[in-house]
Amino acid sequence: MKTAFQCIAKLGTQGCGYEHSLESARRALDPQSNINPGFLRDDAFLAIVFITDEDDCSARNPQLFDPTQAALTDPLGPLTSFRCFEFGITCDINDRNKMGPRHNCVPAQDWLWTSRPVTSISSARSRPRAG
To answer: What is the pLDDT of residues 82-121, one digit of tens each?
Structure first.
């Protein structure tokens, strides 16, 4: 297992700064997509491990990555992965220019997929399998 993981895990921060970990796993396990037929087997356990240095940015709205909005004064702010956090939650203060702690934070529903990937992944093992 250790050798296999070393082969597929690339260390570093050179990839895309907008990780879509949850949505990628959802798509890989979605039987409708037929991407990985036979991957989910009755005689196997499923474990998904994310090792990442970023918040998940499984975007429901691709405009979140709009490169024309890159200034601090633009509605989406600078083109950095902070957008995933800033628009992925809603708190009592939702102004990037106001310093201080945030309270009563909940997942935002308009920019990122917050429950769809988790619900889909969680139910992957309970779906009927072809065979």
So the answer is: 888 888 888 998 888 888 999 998 888 777 776 666 677 7
What is each CA distance from 50 to 11, 23, 35, 73, 131, in whole angstroms? 13, 12, 20, 33, 30
Tokens of 99: 């310093």
> CB count, 10 Å around CB of 91?
13
The pTM score is: 0.67
Closest by alpha carbon to 116, among 107, 125, 127?
A: 107
Backbone angles phi, psi at 83, to 5 degrees: -55, -35
Average pLDDT, the chain: 80
Q: How far apart are CA 113 and CA 88, in angstroms?
A: 8
DSSP 59: B
Closest CA relative to residue 94, chosen from 81, 80, 108: 108
Distance CA 28, CA 39 (A): 9
